[in-house]
Amino acid sequence: LGSDRLRSSFPPLPPSSLSAVAMGFGDLKSPAGLQFCIIGRYVPSQADVAVFEAVSGPPPADLCHALRWYNHIKSYEKEKASLPGVKKALGKYGPANVEDTTESGATDSKDDDDIDLFGSDDEEESEEAKRLREERLAQYESKKAKKPTLVAKSSILLDVKPWDDETDMAKLEECVRSVQADGLVWGCSKLVPVGYGIKKLQIQCVVEDDKVGTDMLEEQITAFDEYVQSMDVAAFNKI
User: What is the pLDDT of residues 2-56, one digit of tens each?
Assistant: First the structure.
């Protein structure tokens, strides 16, 4: 099978006699049967596939023609479904007057889907695909690690109001600045008159959005209730 160099030494029968003469290979799982496993054709076909699937494994080295045929057809493993012809029972091929006694010839393409005679090819492809995927993931992670991470920040202007005009504003600001947290940086401040001699503390801070929120600031600043009456957000800008 597969090429003119692997043609059988058995001459083909006349078309008129094919229907009347029994054909087969004997037991393809035995050395004797393997001696008859080469079918005379110029190109691989479904006949090769049918016989190939019935062979249990590579023929021994002393059956050089059968072994060459086996390796040749094995090279068409991924293309066997597209080979010409219609796959038939083993008894439809082989020399005349040789009974087909192979125990489990794989003539059903459905059975072939369940038995992978050459799983190593698929395994090699799978391992290769896995290796390439892991290399690409590693390259992506490496690029991602080198790329600087952008941290979302905001600039917040707070209005902190005292109880009255007698509140110690220096002490009030000290209390406000004592609030510390990861991702919080206090900035400049000033006192702004609000009426009746009362001044509020207007103070700026920069926060990392994922770490510090206005609710947290309000909760901790208003906890100094001896000095602080309330806290409002005067301005909030993303950086």
Answer: 444 444 433 444 443 333 344 455 555 566 555 545 554 557 777 777 777 777 6
Q: What is the DSSP string of the chain?
A: --SGGG--SSPPPPGGGTTTS-B--S-TTSHHHHTT-----SS--HHHHHHHHHS-SPPPTT-HHHHHHHHHHHTTGGGGGGSSS----GGGSSSBT-----TT----HHHHHH--TTHHHHHHHHHHHHHHHHHHHHHHHHHHHHSPPPPPEEEEEEEEEESSTTS-HHHHHHHHHT---TTEEEEEEEEEEEETTEEEEEEEEEEETTT--HHHHHHHHTT-TTTEEEEEEEEEEE-
AA letter at 33: G
Domains and CATH numbers, the chain: 153-238 (3.30.70.60)
pTM of the model: 0.41
Are the C-beta atoms of residues 171 and 204 closer than 8 Å to each other? no
